[in-house]
Amino acid sequence: MSSMVSDPAGMSTGDVVDTIATLAAELAHRSAPESGAVSKELAETLGRAQDQLECTLAGLVGRVDATGEQARWGLASAKAWLCTTLGMTDARASERLALARQLRRLPELGRRWADGALPLGQATTVVRAVTRLDDTDAAKAEKVLLGLVDDGWSARRVAQVGKRIREVVADRDDSGEPSDAKRGYDASWITVTRSLDGGRYLKGWLNPEDAALWDGTLAPLAKPAGPEDTRDVTQRTAATLSAVLSGGHKATKVTVICDLDTLTGGHAPARLIDGTPIPAGQARRIALNAGVSPLLLGRDHQPLYLGRAVRFANAAQRRVLEARYDTCAVHGCEIPAHLCEVDHVTGWALGSPTDIDQLALTCGWHNRFKHTHPDQVHISRDEDGRYLYRLLPPADVRRAGHGSDEHNPWTREPAHFTSSTVRAQRRLRRGRQDTANRHRIQHPPPGPGIDHPHRT
User: Fold this and answer.
1) What pTM was computed for the model?
2) Which domain holds residue 6?
3) Exposed site from 57, 165, 208, 325, fewest CB < 10 Å?
4) Which residues fall in a coiled-coil region (predicted)?
């Protein structure tokens, strides 16, 4: 290991990554030194190295994002790849994508970051400040903000200057964006301006509560429809908003699942489709006001019949599916059931009937992916009879002998292990085992009638 690390320039990028993963696996199992001073020094050194690794990660993420490689693995977007494969939160994945996409416009920031002269926090602050600027303004803002960093300004103060730069650019371009300082951040607001051709310009601000509703409703539907979807995120969001608004006149639907005994006076609680329990009395009141749809179930809780077979699932069938599936049927996909599409498990074109026991719910992305890449979808059923789709690696990856579950972001457990980490840990275990074997060979334990070699 020491000989490999001593000449990193002669190693391939893959070998360097594998070596770092091996060292990280070893370091993670070591306890911190007893000395606080030593621990402080090591933490600072490791923190700076981690910032440089984040720079490398941004470059790799940017290449995956630019080439659309994640789509070949059944992942709708680069953000979904980061969340599913690396176990990132939505916020962290969004931040890493912003860094990856802005690096090409910020060459000086990238150079300083790679050299270890710019912390990750400062790099993130600069990137946030220039995200909505054009290339010319971004280059000017980069020079100003990095100059403040050189002067010792904190990330918070640099962020304030970045905000002011955006306001100045908005005023210069007469974009009509009101100053955030005038409106504040407590109440949401939206301004609507009519264009000459009958269209509308929309601008506004959502407080955290309204933003959560926006993300929960629109974000899942605004994902790319597939590798051929060339719309940017702004166009997809507008199309999603129009789709939601076009159904806004429909009455809100609430599905309550309960036993017949509960409806006739029993005390067993009912539940909503997301699993939330509700008291029996409340379930009876809902049934009294909304009516009851009977559902015949078999011994294994399989729906047996819900109307005649048609090309598209009817409303009653969809209600049953939403009661059975919390999310998309694809393992690891978290698109909620009410935002999914009804999928014929074996395919309508292949003769699958529109019967309730031949249907599942999948998000729009995975519904199309299953149709265009049937060889990458393995279908099974869980103990409750629900269909479970597992995505397989692309065919060329499987042919190369890398089709094991550790390369599949939907089947690997735990999700945050990458293949490099797995290989590194295996090498580390083999190294420890080899050391133990050599020790046993050099110092065999004493056996019956055999003196220990070191006894005199």
Assistant:
1) 0.59
2) 1-30
3) 208
4) none
